[in-house]
Amino acid sequence: MQKYQEEARLAALCQLKLLDTPASESFDRITRMASQIFNLPIAAVSLTDRDRQWFKSRVGIDHCSIPREKAPCAQVAETTEPLVIEDFAISPCYADSLLARAGTRFYAGAPLVTSDGYGLGSLCVLGTEPRQVTQSEIAALTDLAAMVMAQIELQHAFGRIDPVSGLATQTQFRDDLLDLARDHPSERRFAVVVDLARDDELSQFRQAMGGARVDDMIREASLALQTALQPARTAYQVGAAQLAFLSPPNVEQDAYLSLLRSTFGAIRAVSSVRFVTSVAIGVRPFTLGDVSADDVLRGACSAAQDARREDGAIAVFSAANDMAHRRRYRLLQDFGAALEADDQLRLVYQPRLDLATGRCTSVEALLRWRHPNLGDVSPGEFIPIVERTSLARATTQWVLDAALDELAEWQRSGSSLNLSINISATNFGEADLVERIQLGLLQRRLRPERLEIELTESAIMDQPDRALVMLHQLAETGVCLAIDDFGTGQSSLAYLQRLPAHVVKIDQAFVRSLLSGDSSDAVLVETMVDLAHKLGFRVVAEGIETQQAAALLARMGCEEGQGYLFSRPLESAALVAWLAEQDAASAASIKAA
Ligand code: C2E
Ligand code: MG
Ligand code: MG
Fold first, then answer.
1. Assigned domain for 335 exists
2. 97 and 181, same structural domain?
3. Is the CA virtual torsion 512, 515, 518, 521 positive or negative?
4. In what order do the strands lie in the sheet with 106-113?
5. Where does the EAL domain start and stop, copy by copy (predicted)?
6. What CA–CA distance (Å, rounded) separates 535 from 376?
């Protein structure tokens, strides 16, 4: 056998990862049948390694391997032909072999051949007496050898072929990329990930139509993709609803993107997938050998997410977006631990002042997170990530508990300060939210009016009907309700009128624009204040940074204000000191008057 052929044969054998694996009943069963059919005591599945015959399965033999030198199984592997030695004693090749010396007189072996034509070894039977074979015995041995191969290939395919789509798996993608990088280093390619549906679409679809229809959809998409790629290129399934493939080598990016657009346009036009899900495609350019398979896939998936967010069908990988995805993912991963740790989360409190008297009557609790490695992370960054997940419930509970503990502490020290907390849209879905708030108040003997719940206008408008029900329930308990970031949520007048809220907090952006010099900005804010009053709300302006803005807002009739002008959000101890200072100042001014 030529050397390079033998190397390829050995590589095929190695790839199957069979050598030196434990015995397995699925092979032993076949070996036993071979021994019974021939009525011989010895049978084996014998694999031809570089210099040994290794037995994956054996009956009647004690050792696991014999040297390859002069082993008849090696000849079967090399020729991929059956071999019968009726009597070792008169065989020119094998009379002086190890087997002959050990008393073997008879051998029959059928080759184990892969679908690529490589001979891996032999399924063999051996006897201690010379013997002849019939045609039907050889046919049976050949059939059994085919069964061994089917078993080997089945085991190998396990984990490499997705059972639903029939496409190659991510494991196969990794191996194929390694092979490509070895054979074509430095070649430019594009990895393409086709994300068939958003997670929520998939679960809605599963709920409505059942898992079998989801499988049908994935099968249909896989078939369409495989057909578009033609058999020359492989499509992979790399996630529950994510398919992937590689571009041909060295294609030009713009031309390739427009090819992808037209191909997927055509697939979409004929597929039923388009009726129920939105498909997003991510493209990751890379050089073979430079980037690991996992990074290639992750990059393409990250681009697919970009495509989704940008409402486009296709996006090319961007390192900057990818960094942001990774950071978001990391924050989400780590926030669960932060909720359990006792030194990462804390509340700070920002005073809210009566604009007419300058007195502080309430404070807003704002969450702070000190990440053990990343340092301070602002709620503007982590709240939007966390509040869309199941962590929203635990987060609000943490804030509620910490805030009510603090409020109870103030009550004990004789302060009548009120406190507001922020909750998220996801919290509306919690059937027991109202009870949890009531319980928290009861446990600490706090009157409900001391607590205010802030909800952004856009969170309310996310699920207006549900919000209305929840807000009515909350209002009935006696807690105050505030509409936060008012002016940004596009609620209608008719809807606002039905909201049982007490307060609106005009968003900082409007307050900031007051001093822009454009008089229409001031008219807008004044109109908002009037409107809020007519609807029966008390008005708080957020983000007041200058005396001028405070004075203007007071003239417009805005009752309260919050902002850096009065105070930044303060740690609990600093708040106590700040309040004492305020009291001292107002006592001094009363005295002076
Ligand atoms: P928000 O509820 O509208 O809170 C007001 C934000 O404006 C706070 O930012 C506050 O520090 C900031 N701010 C106050 N006065 C001024 C000012 O004069 N100038 C400027 N430039 N900013 C001012 P923060 O603490 O970073 O919070 C950002 C947002 O994160 C909050 O907006 C709120 O929507 C959310 N958030 C904070 N804590 C929580 C929480 O415990 N739960 C929930 N669900 N959301 C929270
Ligand atoms: Mg707020
Ligand atoms: Mg706000």
1. no
2. no
3. positive
4. 65-67, 52-59, 42-48, 119-127, 106-113, 83-85
5. 328-583
6. 39
Token pair in block for residue 370:
């000190």
Nearest CA, atom 32, ligand 1: 380
Pocket test for ligand 1, best of 453, 460, 542, 575 (most atoms within 8 A of CB): 542
Asked if 192 and 45 sit in the same domain, the reply is no
**Domain for residue 326, yes or no?**
no
Q: What pLDDT, in 10s, does the model give residues 24-66?
A: 888 999 999 999 999 999 999 999 999 999 999 999 999 899 9
Q: What percentage of the chain reaches a pLDDT higher than 90?
A: 68
CA of 544, nearest ligand number: 1
Task: Dump pLDDT digits (tens) for 295-348.
Answer: 999 999 999 989 988 766 899 999 998 899 889 999 999 999 999 999 999 999
Q: Note the ligand closest to the C-alpha atom of 511.
A: 1
| Ligand with an atom nearest the CA of residue 482 | 2
Read off the CATH number of the domain in which 100 is found.
3.30.450.40
CB 245 within 8 Å of CB 233: yes
| Domain CATH for 283 | 3.30.70.270
Claim to verify: residue 464 and residue 382 sit in the same structural domain = yes
Number of residues that make up the chain: 593
Give me the number of domains the chain comprises: 3
The residue whose two tokens read 């508990």 is 401
Closest CA to 40 of 67, 61, 66, 64: 61
- Cα–Cα distance measured from residue 177 to residue 191, given in angstroms and rounded to the nearest whole number: 10
Same domain, 262 and 194: yes
Specify if 325 maps to a domain: no
The residue segments making up the domain with residue 22 are 2-160
Distances (CA, A) of 152 to 40, 51, 191: 24, 21, 31
Looking at the fold, whether 205 and 98 belong to one and the same domain comes out as: no
Over residues 102-156, the pLDDT tens digits come to 999 999 999 999 988 999 999 999 999 999 999 999 999 999 999 999 999 888 7
Q: State which of 364, 366, 419 you would mutate to test the pocket of ligand 1, scoring each by most atoms of that ligand within 8 A of its C-beta.
A: 366
Burial class (CB in 10 A: 0-12, 13-18, 19+), 221: buried
The answer to whether the CB of 99 falls within 8 A of the CB of 126 is yes
Q: Are residues 362 and 431 in the same domain?
A: yes
Ligand 1 cavity residues, CB under 6 Å: 350, 366-367, 378-380, 383, 387, 399, 422-424, 454, 484-485, 508, 542-545, 562-564, 569
151 and 218, same domain (yes or no): no
Q: Residues 101, 205: one domain? A: no
Which pTM does this prediction carry?
0.69
**Closest ligand 1 atom to 383 CA:** 45
